[in-house]
Amino acid sequence: MKEKPLHRRKLLFTFLAALAVCLLIIVPIVIVYVTKNSAALPVTYATLQAEIDRPDVSIYYIPHQDDDAIAFSLSIAHDLANNVPIQVHLISDGANHALQQIMATGLYHCEWHNTNHSFPLDDQDISRIRTQEFLASMAALNVPPDKIHLMNLHDYQTPAAWTADLYNQLKNSVKEQILTNHAQYPNALHHCSSGYYDFDGPRNPVHLACWDAATEITNANLMKADQFAFYRTYVFYQPPSHRWSQMTMNFSQFIPQHQLSVEAYQAYDPGNGQYALGMHSVPILMNNTIVDGIIYLDFLNNTFPNNITVS
User: Fold this and answer.
1) Transmembrane helix as a keyword (predicted)?
2) Which residues pair with 229 in a beta bridge?
3) Secondary structure letter of residue 54 according to DSSP
4) Which residue in 44, 41, 45, 42 sits closest to 249, CA to CA?
5) 175, exposed or middle or buried, with CB in 10 Å at 0-12, 13-18, 19+?
6) How would you list the strands of the sheet with 308-310, edge to edge?
7) Under 8 Å CB-to-CB from 67, ≥6 apart: which residues?
8) Do β-strands 109-110 and 115-116 pair in parallel, antiparallel, or remain unpaired?
9) Looking at residue 197, what DSSP letter applies?
10) What are the phi and psi torsion angles at 191 (to 5°)?
11) Which of 133, 123, 132 is nearest to 282 (CA)?
12) Alpha-carbon span 95 to 127, nearest angstrom
């Protein structure tokens, strides 16, 4: 009779020991599973709004010389006004043979200047001047020169010229830059072009590269989806009532800075080497964006693709 309590205690200790062993095995597995899958969780509008309002660091990846003024300048001005540390990476080298033809051959009528331009500009001149306009736009926004980085990746321009290998090289270069920045600034928000949702005709490879790179990075659980925000550019081909994205934010208080950025691409003084290449390249986008204080955003793993407006 006296041995029963002892026997029960032994059974209890055995059960507790077995339970402890099970927990030691199961808990680490659960932790690993949750950690590995956290990057794939859907992004919420509240999360992205908070990130854009006050990111620890903002890193911008501008596809081409002019996309900064069209799509990103309001956000850049917002960050600088709120003392958010920023880095700006220009992806393309500025190659644009079609623009060279417009400016140099005399074959195309310019409605803006009511003439056919025949300036002595070759393809190298176009790249150089476009980058000068980009740097002037950054200066107009008061971006410190040491925060501006030229990736100088060649733009093959037409979809036919972008072979799969060339596109993968571009995408991997952007991906490597994102991961390098993430290692240095692990809590940064990465601002990219919405190349998957935002297009006018065939998707532009330079716009798409950042989206695809971010998708691969998050699928590999190297970063979280809410560390990326994607901006629409071609949306400005539409009238205001038809400009759509997954989320919009009103940054109209920064329109003066935004306009200065656009004006850097409208500066026309050929005698002093200013050809307004951005304006000649995409006049509709330039004219429409300059009076719009809205940023148009998409993001990864979004389960509610509604046109949400955040004031």
Assistant:
1) yes
2) 191
3) S
4) 45
5) buried
6) 148-153, 86-92, 58-62, 189-193, 228-231, 294-298, 247-250, 308-310
7) 193, 207, 233
8) antiparallel
9) T
10) -100, 120
11) 133
12) 5
> Which residues are paired to 230 by β-bridges?
192, 298
Nearest-5° angle of CA 298, CA 300, CA 303?
90
pLDDT at 158: 83
Which phi and psi angles does 281 have, rounded to 5°? Answer: -75, -50
Chain length of the chain: 311
**Residues in contact with 213: Cβ distance below 8 Å, sequence separation at least 6, in sequence order:** 171, 172, 174, 175, 178
Write the burial class of residue 37 (CB in 10 Å: 0-12 exposed, 13-18 middle, 19+ buried).
exposed
Residue type, 278: G
Query: What tokens appear for 11 in the block?
Result: 């059974």
What are the tokens at 95?
A: 């190659």
List pLDDT tens digits, range 77-86.
999 999 999 9
Q: Does residue 152 carry a pLDDT above 80?
A: yes
Angle at 287 between CA 101 and CA 170, to 5 degrees: 55
What pLDDT is stored for residue 2 in this prediction?
47
How far, in whole angstroms, is CA 274 from its chain's centroid? 28
Residue 166: the pLDDT is 97
Q: Whole-number mean pLDDT of the chain?
A: 88
> Residue 167 and residue 172: Cα distance in Å, rounded?
8
Tokens of 93: 């080298």
What pLDDT shows up at residue 11? 59
**With the CA atoms of 20, 24, 29 and 34 taken in that order, what torsion angle do they form, in degrees rounded to the nearest 10?**
80
Cβ pair 176, 116 in contact under 8 A: no
Distance CA 205, CA 64 (A): 11
Tell me if 62 sits within 8 A of 248, measured CB to CB: no
Answer whether residue 103 shows pLDDT above 50: yes
190 exposed, middle or buried (CB, 10 Å; 0-12, 13-18, 19+)?
Answer: buried
